[in-house]
Amino acid sequence: MYLSIDQVAHRLHKSNRQVRYLMEKGWLTPVNQQHPKRDGGFRFREEDVKELEESLTLKGLTVKETAQHLKLTPEYVLTLIGKGEIASFTQTIGNQKRRLVKLEEIERYRSEKNNDAVANRMGEHGRKMQLISREAHIFEEAVINGVMARIVDLAPLRAMTETGEIVEPEEYKSNLMENNKPYLREKGYVNFSFPMPRHPNHPTYHALFKMIRQLGAKNIQIFEQQWGDYFVKCRQGLLELLEDEYRLLQRSIISGQLIPVTGGYQLTSDEVEVKVNITRNMLTQYDQLAHKKGKERNDILFDALSHYLGGHA
User: Fold this and answer.
1) Out of the domains of life, which is the source (predicted)?
2) How many Å apart are CA 302 and CA 309, to the nearest integer?
C-alpha cells in the first residue's frame, strides 16, 4: 500500500512542508521520485513511513516533562540525573540528541521518595492517625452492638468497649457533622504527649475529642507511638476547657504553653519567627536537601541550627 504526501503528513502529525524537508534530508524517499506528476504526486511505502514514525517517536519523557511530573525544576532533575538518582538515556532525532526518562523510572523515583518521607515521619512521631472518615470521627463516643464504646482508630475502624476490648464494627455511621474549622495560619506548634488510655471513658479521650472539635481537624495532628503514647501536635488556637481538662493538658504539654486568657486558654508556641537573608545558591542547596530527606524547609534549618549549637555549647 502506498501513501500520499498528505497521508504521510497526517500520520506523522506534521505539515506537508515538514514532510518535504524530511525528504530533502534523506529521511524519507518516495517510490516514484522520477515521475511524481504521472501518479498525481509523491507516493511512499507504508512500511517506510512506519519505520520513520517509530524513529521520530520519543521513547520516554523529556527533562521538562519529567520535572512537571515530579513537581521539580528541570535544573534539579538534571542534577538528579547527574547523580544517578534518576536513570535516563539519549535518543537521536534528526541531528539532535534528546535526554529522556522512562515513565516507570519517574514512578519508581516518586515512590521511593514518598516511602522515605513516610519513614521519616514514622521515625519522628509514630503512626499518623486519621481524624475523620465517612463512618466516624476519632475518639467519639459510639454505641457498638448495643454497648457504649469509644472510636480509637479509623484505618481500619476500631472501637474500645467498656471492658477494654478492641472491636472492629462491621457497620457504623456517625451522626456528627464534619467540623470545617479554617486553617490557623500563625506559624508554630504546641506539642503534647498522653499515655494511651485503657478505658473508653478516660478523661484523656474526652480532652482529645474536645481539642479536635474546637481546633478543627486541619489544625491538629495525632500520632500513635510505638510504646503506647499519643503524640499530639496543635496549631496555635483557643481552647475552652474545664479546670480538670486544663490541668490534664498542662501536665501533658512537652513544648509550647497553654495560657489562660479571656474566653479560654490560648495555645502558644515556643517558636519565634526570624527573617534570615541567604544567597540563591544556598537556597537551592537547602531545597535539594529538604527534598532528598523528605522534610520541610523549616525542619532542615532547625536540625542544622540544633547540630551547630549543640557542638558549640
Assistant:
1) Bacteria
2) 10
Stated pTM of the model: 0.53
| Residue bearing cell 510504646 | 227
3-class secondary structure for 23-86? Answer: HHCCCCCCCCCCCCHHHCCCEEEHHHHHHHHHHHCCCCEEHHHHHHHHCCCHHHHHHHHHHCCC
Mean per-residue pLDDT over the chain, rounded: 85
- Strand ranges, E, within 73-219: 89-93, 96-101, 127-128, 141-144, 147-154, 157-161, 166-167, 189-195
Which grid cell sits at 223? 500520632
Last residue of a domain, one of 10, 38, 56: 56
> Which residues form the domain of 111?
61-124
User: Does some domain include residue 131?
Assistant: no
Q: Rounded to whole angstroms, how far apart are CA atoms 147 and 151?
A: 12
| Beta-bridge partners for 149 | 142, 161
For the record, the C-alpha cell of 108 comes out as 519508581
| pLDDT given at position 237 | 95
Same domain, 246 and 223: yes
Q: Note whether 118 and 202 are same-domain residues.
A: no
> Which pLDDT belongs to residue 116?
61
Question: Do 157 and 255 lie in a common domain?
Answer: yes
Q: How many angstroms separate the Cα of 288 from the Cα of each of 98, 106, 227, 281, 297?
A: 25, 17, 34, 11, 10
- Grouping H, G, I as helix, E, B as strand and the rest as coil, residue 113 is helix
Q: pLDDT grade, residue 95 (50/70/90)? A: low
* Three-class SS state of 311: helix
Question: Do 41 and 94 lie in a common domain?
Answer: no
Q: How many CB atoms lie within 10 A of CB 1?
A: 9
